[in-house]
Amino acid sequence: MQDPLKIGIAGLGTVGVGVIKILEQTAERIAARAGRPIAITHVSARTRGKDRGVDIGGYTWCDDPGALADAPVDVIVELMGGSDGPALVLAQKSLSAGKHFVTANKALIAHHGQALAESAERSKAVLRFEAAVAGGIPVIKALCDGLAANEIVSVQGILNGTCNYILSVMDQEGADFGDVLADAQRLGYAEADPTFDIDGIDAAHKLAILAAISFGAQIDFDSVSVDGIRAVSPVDLDYARQLGYRLKLIGRAHMVDGMLEQRVAPTLVPVGHPLAAVEDSFNAIVFEGVPVGQTVFEGRGAGEGPTASAVVADIIDIARGGDAPAFGVPAAALKKLSATPTEARQGRFYVRLTVEDEVGVAASIASLMRDHGISMDSLLQRGEAGKGEVTFVLTPHRCALSVIEAAAEARAALEVVLSKPAILRIQDQDDV
Amino acid sequence: MQDPLKIGIAGLGTVGVGVIKILEQTAERIAARAGRPIAITHVSARTRGKDRGVDIGGYTWCDDPGALADAPVDVIVELMGGSDGPALVLAQKSLSAGKHFVTANKALIAHHGQALAESAERSKAVLRFEAAVAGGIPVIKALCDGLAANEIVSVQGILNGTCNYILSVMDQEGADFGDVLADAQRLGYAEADPTFDIDGIDAAHKLAILAAISFGAQIDFDSVSVDGIRAVSPVDLDYARQLGYRLKLIGRAHMVDGMLEQRVAPTLVPVGHPLAAVEDSFNAIVFEGVPVGQTVFEGRGAGEGPTASAVVADIIDIARGGDAPAFGVPAAALKKLSATPTEARQGRFYVRLTVEDEVGVAASIASLMRDHGISMDSLLQRGEAGKGEVTFVLTPHRCALSVIEAAAEARAALEVVLSKPAILRIQDQDDV
């Protein structure tokens, strides 16, 4: 058997500790699978003395994570997070120095993946980030290796466990977003600052990574259209059910006329759709490929064990000599795709608006729709006696988002409309 | 870019044609992903002249598939099928000659996988069989690579699309097994000789392969306990629903006290279980791993496109220089595990029996259960007025299969029992 593969870890939070546990406690199994022993030799974190439940006394300590790039290690594992700052510096230094680099950092890859992949290839280092997308579900390896024979037509998924947990609880209990979020924060299921999760940014990072690999394109985080779940009301979850759907935060990317369309949005998916039944903090990803058809991958998208599982899988890949390009093809072969212009983005929509309960209100809404050239799949009207207001849920035929937004704006200007219309996506099984 | 990787294909049925289509029609994309061009140079099949919809005129033809092992090719792709005969001869000759060998042949691997893996390692050839299990779902790569950091606790799945299709139609239409099978054969969803599929043998081949990789064990097809779906009646599907379950043909392997338990059996899985909602000819596999938790993989398990997708993924792996052992660890490191003895196999069961509708019949069944020391989770009794018979569905507490079988035998001997009791498995989410 060969010499051990020497590992330096930057960041000793839960995931870092999870990686140490796997590599130390199951060293023999890992060595059998990797074809050689794997030895942690250097670590770096913010505080040294902290009790982490694992003994780090045998590793060389570095106060400065950037120093790992100069240490005698083969692979640097970055688990600090953040799209810039120390994580980016470490990535750049490591790859320039020809050291392999494994990270769980979706923000880093979403913003700097192309440059880092180019740097890795220049110095014949390997860049891996399985843990950055969907935690324990080996979805990047599935795309790069298992589905490598396919033309990917679309990728979509539930990419943020916190949002899926919040929507699941709202759906089960009819509770308001704010209350469920507060509970989730108390229970540790949501961060103290939940912005990246609930505003869809975390899901957008992951989607941009998946899209780049799926379509052989340079990563383009900036063109992802992003809506989070703050505006979702329990009545939307309820109406979705009545219409035969479930409401989920879905990230979706596909090609339209040679342009890349990427969006993260609260979306109605029909019962029977593989994403409709994904509950709690689970993640799931659906690829449509030619010739493979539809494949679905589901599992835990976060947490110590699942994320560490993915990090160690990358380390094993490197130990075996795996040196395939980070995004499936050489960085220079990744195409620079245009994004579909916002006004060209089409789809199906769910529009909910609450209006004063007065004579002729349905007529004025109907004429407004007509005036915007919008025809309807379904219209649901419900008033509550004595409350003086009535709710309309409209699902127009497939049309451009811009048309819906224009109509919604005009509608909002109607005196009878009591609150901002809610606009959600509908994604049927056979929609492009 | 390097020289082309030269491929010889034995067997030009639908899958072989699918492989040719991918490699010829998307050659540029495949070369970008593989890091080098891939060129088919030799082919062999039963008849040469047949119109297959692809042009094979540019390839060197071999009447004898075994001749491919002597041809100047790097990889031999075996798509003939059969656990012995020409497929085995070709595998042995190819691997001994140091040629890489890719196959979709589950019977071959289930019976000879250990010997072939040893032979491959002796001559530093690569053996790959992603397409042998679950068609287009890259589940072997997921196990060997994506989940490589884990201790696998159990693997279970819907591994045969024909059986799942038949059970889905029986469930939807209340139709009898024989009628649905005949329809499926007419429509081409089932083979003229459906034995391997409906008797569970095909699923058992796949399960044995997954179990070997999951538990780092020598493949042991002979110890798989196998029941097919011939005896399933539409009433069982209906009772399963009433009890909150779906009835599926499930293959399952897990370790009990250091021994390997593998079974294929019609099984009740609760609604909400990831396998319960898998319909039609789809396949799905669920792994329980430490530390990753539960991961689920779903997709098309058969057919030209999905199977060819998996075959070409293996070819790309080889083109990139992937040389990890076929079963995840070197063949010599695969343990020889004992199988759990039949009488030690425990579980939960569904027992249905039809008896004469006469006074005291419930009492005699109840006493018989008591005499065998079996206690009940639930008992469902239903008679149809005027028909003179009544059906009991019993779900005992967790117990040994042997106890249930002894009781069923004693019950069958009761004069009032009108037909052979049906015994099915129950597999709850949290059952070991």
Structural overview:
Two copies of one chain form a homodimer. The first copy, chain A, has helices at residues 14-25, 27-34, 86-96, 106-122, 139-146, 161-173, 177-187, 195-198, 201-215, 234-242, 304-319, 361-371, 401-413, and strands spanning 5-10, 38-44, 60-62, 75-78, 100-103, 127-128, 151-158, 225-226, 245-256, 259-270, 282-290, 293-300, 346-356, 376-383, 389-396, 399-400, 422-426. Chain A is α/β, with parallel strands linked by helices and 432 residues long. Chain A has three domains: 5-132, NAD(P)-binding Rossmann-like Domain (Rossmann fold, 3-Layer(aba) Sandwich), CATH 3.40.50.720; 139-299, Dihydrodipicolinate Reductase, domain 2 (2-Layer Sandwich); 343-426, 2-Layer Sandwich (Alpha-Beta Plaits), CATH 3.30.70.260. In chain A, strand 4, helix 3 (86-96) and strand 5 (100-103) form a beta-alpha-beta unit. In chain A, helix 1 (14-25) packs across helix 11, helix 2 (27-34) packs across helix 11 (304-319) and helix 4 (106-122) packs parallel to helix 9. The mean pLDDT of chain A is 94. The interface between A and B is large, with 61 and 60 residues. Strand 12 (293-300) of chain A pairs antiparallel with strand 12 of chain B.
